[in-house]
Amino acid sequence: MAFNQELEAVTQAFSGHGVDEKSLVTLLGKWDPLERESFRKKTPHLFSEDHERHFQRWDDQYVRLLKHEFVRFKNAVVLWTMHPWERDARLVKEALKKGPNEYGVLIEVACTRSSEELLGARKAYHSLFDHSIEEDVASHIHGIERKLLVALLSAYRYEGTKVKDDTAKSEAKTLSNAIKNAHKKPLNEDDEVIRILATRSKLHIQAVCKHYKEISGKNLDEDLDDLRFKEAVQCLCTPQIYFSKVLNAALKIDVDKNTKKSLTRVIVTRADIDMKDIKADYHNLYGVSLPQKVEEVAREAG
C-alpha cells in the first residue's frame, strides 16, 4: 500500500469511520519517524502546530475522543503517533498525577533521553500545561526525592566522548563514602551525590560506575538502597537492562493496571531507539524472547 493510501486509512480510522484494529496497528507499526511526522502535519484537524516551539501537538478534544473510541489499544496508538516531546511531557504529567508509585517514569524520562530530547519535553510541557516541568515537580512532590527529581529533569548533559578518568575515579570514591555514611546523611540530602548524577555526562557516569566496582567489588546500583537513586543509575548506565526489568514486571499476571501499562510505554518510546538491544538483554536476563513472553502471557490471560 502506498504511503498516501496508508495515510488516508489511518486518518479514516481516527475519524471514527472504522478501520479494523489489525490494519491500523500494522500500518502504524511500519511507519518511521519521518512518516509519522508527515501524518501529523497532514492532519490539522488532529494536530496543531506550535510555531514557537516547532512541533505538532495532539488536539486535546481528539485525544479525549480516542480514549472512548479505541479503548483496547488507544494508549499505544495515541503514544505512537505523538511527537516524542509531547509524549514525554504527557508521561511526566500523568506520573505526577498518579503519585509516588509512578515517579520512576520521571527518572526514566530524565535519564534515558538525550539532552535535546529532554529539552524538547520541557518545551512541550510549557506548551501543553502552561507550567514548567521543574515547577510542577517541585510543587507536587513534597518527599525527600524532590531535590533529586528536580535536578535530573533540569539537566542538559554534555554528550561528547571526552571523559576525565581521574575525575571519574575521584567521584566514585565520593559516592562510595556517601553510601557508607548514608545512615548519618541520607543520599537525598547529599548535594555532591545529586550533582554527580544530575550534571555529569552518561559516559562519565559509566566511568564512575566502573571505578566504583573496582573500589567496592559491587555494582553501584546494588549498593543503593534508595529506589530513585538506583533507578537513576540504571537508566544512566545500563538503560537496556533497566527497560528489560520494567517489561518483565509488566508481564507478570497479577500486577496492577499501572504496571501493565509500562509494557506499552516502553515498547512505544524505545521502538526507534534501542528496542533491538532491549530484546537481546531481555533474552539474556530471562532466558526467553520478549515476543514469546508476550504471547505466553496473552494465552494465560485469555
TrEMBL record:
This is Annexin. Signal peptide: none annotated. The gene is LOC100784954. The keyword Aminoacyl-tRNA synthetase does not apply. One of its GO terms (molecular function) is calcium-dependent phospholipid binding. Keywords: Annexin, Calcium, Calcium/phospholipid-binding, Metal-binding, Repeat. InterPro entries: Annexin, Annexin_repeat, Annexin_sf. GO terms for biological process: response to stress. Pfam families: Annexin. It comes from the Eukaryota. PANTHER family: ANNEXIN, ANNEXIN D4. SUPFAM superfamilies: Annexin. The keyword rRNA processing does not apply.
